[in-house]
Amino acid sequence: MAKQEPTSAASRPLKIVAGADAFGSSLKDTLVAQLRSLNIEVEDLGTSKYYSVGEEVGRRVSQAANSNSSVETRGLLACGTGVGVAIFANKFPGVYAATCLTTAEALNARSINNCNVLAVSGMSTTPEAAKEILTTFLNTPFKSPCPASGSNPWPEDLQAFFEESVQEMSKIGNENAPVADPPCFICSLAKAREDKEFTPVDVMPGGSMKILRETPTSAIVRFKAGSVEPAHHHTFGHDLVVTKGSKCVWNLTKREKYDLGVGDYLFTPAGDVHRVKYFEDTEFFIKWDGHWDLFLDEDVAAANAAIDKEKNDAK
């Protein structure tokens, strides 16, 4: 295929932020290769859940749209249908994502809506068809003739409407923005359960836990100031966010140390041996897949001795 230079009303260099879920990954890779063969800059975010990758591409295109960058940034998304990724990309101001299954739809989306994120279907669109759709998306200017206009130039009054509508649409989501950050969902969840019963963690003195949901499991965990979790491991990986207090986590498998305070996040992979020290009364939200298990690799006395030794060695 001959190289084609994408046209742009502003004649700015073009950058594409791309991503897909598992159902669209192969098609996305094909289109990324096509873009790079055209010497177009591509930021490939890889493969993730459709709503996560749709959000991330939408966020980056929105940030670029609201900046004075000399580069025009558009998005490319692929999932099973092309619909889910577009829904989540469109949650950001200045993003106009369209699911296009034909070149005609791509022509209409660019001409009428100034579409800046192309979403394609990994299950119903062949690579050859997708390449043609992408080429159309790249080369069709805003307000250009398209199937919806009968392939004729738009009348001047409609061109003016398109121009005004895009300017008005770009303001949606930016008006009446909250002055303060919204309350943290996890913190609110923990607070709502303050008076509920927490079950002591027998093998971890000073610790207690309240299960919130089963499979995948999530819980609020509390530890008293001065408590220590001896080195241990689980058969599952787990995510946690500190909602109160502070703690230090030693990942002994990776030989890494993490000082965590309110709002900090940490993921510990399955099987990684870790030790924890709580400097004040602390709470955190934790989530894992599977049934709860815990295997001790040392006792409390050995854990305290190791922590004290590190402290003395640092003096």
CA gyration radius, whole angstroms: 26 Å
Q: What is the ordering of alpha helices and beta strands? A: EHEHEHEHEHHHEEEEEEEEEEEH
Could you name the ranges where pLDDT drops below 50 across 5 or more consecutive residues? 1-10
Structural class: alpha+beta
The share of residues in helices is 25-40%
N- to C-terminal distance: 67 Å
Largest sheet, strands/sense/barrel: 6 strands, antiparallel
Strand order of the largest sheet: 6-7-8-15-10-13
The 3D shape can be described as: elongated
Q: In DSSP terms, counting alpha (H) and pi (I) runs of 4 or more, how many helices? A: 8
Mean pLDDT: 83
By DSSP, the count of extended strands is 16
| Beta-strand percentage range | 25-35%
